[in-house]
Design brief:
The protein is of the alpha/beta class. It has two domains: 165 residues, DNAb Helicase, Chain A (Orthogonal Bundle); 278 residues, Rossmann fold. It is built from 18 helices and nine strands. The longest helix has 32 residues.
């Protein structure tokens, strides 16, 4: 701890070669004269210096942060407003340092451009050195296990790649809009959605297919959430040729494969498991019901056509997010679509190397880690969440109502981190038969689309969901229960 604090103190005012401090002061003085006009000089500085990390002096970082934040808020930027902001933020920069910047003469446009180029170039080198140092530290840490070290190096590599992409002159909207329209045109398709095809038509159109991001689905026991996501996983592999990694902390690989065989063959999964399927279909009843082992054999052959893309990993106490990252990165490298679908059953029991004071803190951490994983791999991550039954509420009839965002147990991290959040709900008023249930997937949050209730029939005996339709929902429906 003392070593870390010493390194932190040393980093506050690092020694630099050349005229770094003079360049920083000239850039800030010039920005102070031009920022309220937002002219070409100001845009060059703001566009290239996206953060304060390029400034090595603490007071320069504070002043630049204050000017940028005030400008972004639409406030007037002058010495007084900057000093007020610095004081309110608890920073230690002296008022005379702010006055010195605002009273100094501005540099010419050519000088500023040169100074900006110089300090950004040095900043890139520093960032690269820091990332290399982080990489070496991760590899040299004697207490880190192999998964942690490899995952850390992968994360650093993603950060370095992203840094290279974002540093540089920022285009104006007028220059960038043509590129945006071209990308949107390329995304357009007859499918009517952009992301990976889930094989569920209504779900595709509500969430725009599976895109890079975090998807969290909750459901009470026996609502079919695992079955639904196994079917979705199979359909993504079959429809898009995208590799799927299904991390199961509860059910075995055999149990999940039987679900697929039941759905494809149309035979009750319990009959398959218990050997209640006629091998020769001798009885008329079995022939008419299709309960022949040949149906299962046919399902196996069909499964093999896309099953090579589906991997069920029986997760355990070692299956951390780091282990998931390493496995997913390897699968992505072999993916013909450049993406991989990651499914986790379920969120709350993913092991971590961190100690948390509450399950809420753990869920917050896991949501952040999984969302970063989705971003780094440019792929969808789908996680099942445990559910807070009381959040479903009860109407005047005493029956369970439709879920709200409170359905997510310890939902703080899920509510903010998930790009799409949904909960399964079984309609108590729609009686089908002993093997069928009316189950809806209620989309409670959809960062880039509408909210909806996707209605399905769940054939529990054959482990199959069939969509019936979808109904749009209002935002307020996700915040309060409905009376029945």
């Amino acid at each position: 701890m003392k070593d870390f604090e010493k390194r932190l103190d040393d980093a506050k005012e690092p020694e630099v070669d050349g005229h770094q401090h003079e360049w920083e002061a000239a850039i800030l003085s010039t920005l102070a004269k031009h920022i309220n006009q937002v002219d070409a000089i100001a845009l060059n500085i703001i566009g290239n210096l996206r953060g304060d990390s390029y400034f090595l002096r603490t007071d320069h970082r504070d002043i630049y942060s204050a000017m940028r934040i005030l400008h972004d808020k639409g406030d007037h930027v002058d010495a007084t407003t900057v000093k007020e902001w610095i004081a309110s933020a608890g920073m230690t920069t002296k008022t005379e340092d702010v006055d010195a910047i605002f009273n100094a003469e501005a540099a010419s446009e050519g000088q500023v451009r040169t100074y900006v180029d110089r300090i950004t170039s040095r900043g890139k080198i520093r960032q690269a050195r820091e990332m290399v140092a982080d990489t070496m530290a991760a590899l040299d840490d004697p207490e880190a296990n192999a998964d942690e070290a490899v995952a850390r190096v992968q994360s650093i590599a993603f950060d370095m790649s992203r840094t290279r992409r974002i540093i540089g002159e920022v285009q104006s909207d007028a220059d960038a809009v043509d590129d945006l329209v071209e990308r949107l045109k390329n995304n357009a398709s007859d499918q009517g959605f952009v992301g990976l095809n889930t094989g569920f038509n209504h779900l595709n159109h509500v969430i725009n297919g599976l895109n890079a991001g975090l998807y969290v689905f909750a459901g009470s026991p026996s609502s079919g959430k695992t079955t639904y996501l196994k079917q979705l996983s199979d359909q993504v592999a079959e429809c898009t040729s995208t590799p799927v990694l299904f991390f199961s902390f509860e059910q075995s690989r055999d149990e999940l494969m039987v679900k697929t065989l039941g759905r494809l063959s149309g035979i009750n999964t319990r009959d398959i498991v218990k050997g209640r399927v006629e091998s020769k279909a001798r009885t008329v009843a079995n022939i008419q019901a299709g309960k022949s082992w040949k149906n299962v054999e046919w399902a196996v052959e069909k499964y093999k056509k896309f099953g090579h893309l589906v991997k069920v990993i029986e997760a355990d106490h070692e299956t951390t997010v780091d282990r998931i990252r390493i496995t997913a990165q390897a699968a992505k490298q072999q993916s013909p679509t450049g993406k991989v679908l990651i499914v986790i059953d379920y969120l709350q029991i993913i092991p971590t190397d961190e100690a948390f004071g509450s399950i809420r803190e753990k869920v917050d951490y896991l949501c952040s880690a999984l969302r970063r994983l989705a971003r780094d791999l440019d792929s969808p991550v789908v996680a099942i969440s445990s559910v807070n039954r009381s959040s479903y509420g009860k109407g005047k009839s005493g029956k369970i109502g439709k879920p709200t965002m409170d359905a997510f147990k310890e939902s703080g991290g899920i509510e903010f981190a998930a790009d799409v959040a949904g909960a399964f709900w079984t309609d108590p008023d729609e009686e089908l038969d002993v093997h069928q249930r009316a189950v809806s997937l209620v989309i409670l949050k959809n960062r880039n689309g509408e909210l909806a209730e996707i209605q399905t029939t769940f054939h529990a005996d054959k482990a199959e969901f069939k969509e019936k339709g979808s109904v749009s929902r209002d935002y307020t429906d996700s915040l309060k229960g409905e009376e029945l």
